[in-house]
Write a structure and sequence with these properties.
By secondary structure, this protein is α/β, with parallel strands linked by helices. The chain is built from 9 helices and 8 strands. It is globular.
Length: 225
Amino acid sequence: MSQLKTALNKLYKQLDGTGAQLVAVSKYHPAEAIREAYDEGQRIFGESHVQELCAKVPILPDDIEWHFIGHLQTNKVKYIAPFISLIHSVDTFKLLKEIDRQASKCGRTIDCLLQLHIAKEETKFGFLPEELSAMLSQEEWKELRNVRICGLMCMATNTDDEQQIKGEFHEAHTIFEHLKATYFTDNDSFKQLSMGMSDDYPIALSEGSTLIRVGSLIFGERNYG
């Protein structure tokens, strides 16, 4: 059994009964590796570079659900708008508006997650909790017809302190529940909490993650070339 197949089987067993889904983070990995995971039944793949993603899409199966998980510049949205299934990393209202504009041009509605900044690191993108509440309170987002806000995404601090990680994921889940109750009460689409990567996904699952973003455990270490 290949390392990839073994890793996927382990992850599927861990996810069984949780209601959470696996996003296989395939950035920097070749189409052949994605095809191998696809042949094992994986359908959701996460990429974080527009050019790389656009090169992979035409040569891989049409029923792959592509997720964009990296920092997205507004001038790059138009390239992925025709096919992207979910954008995890909406970190400004300006970006949300541009996604809506490009989705409208394509005759699509694009699912989006609002990126929450909870890590104790300046380098992470995302809305601070108070910024997120302020943006949603203004309600201008309700006028956008071609995006659907489906939940939140976050990254924990890059640390070995599992209690800190657990606390940050717990905070994210609490904020998710508050926003759901305050702004999305009648919106069944607001149900995704994307958190947890190769090093911390078990903690994320214990704190209510619905999407884990796992790459190196599946594909091995990346070749940054």
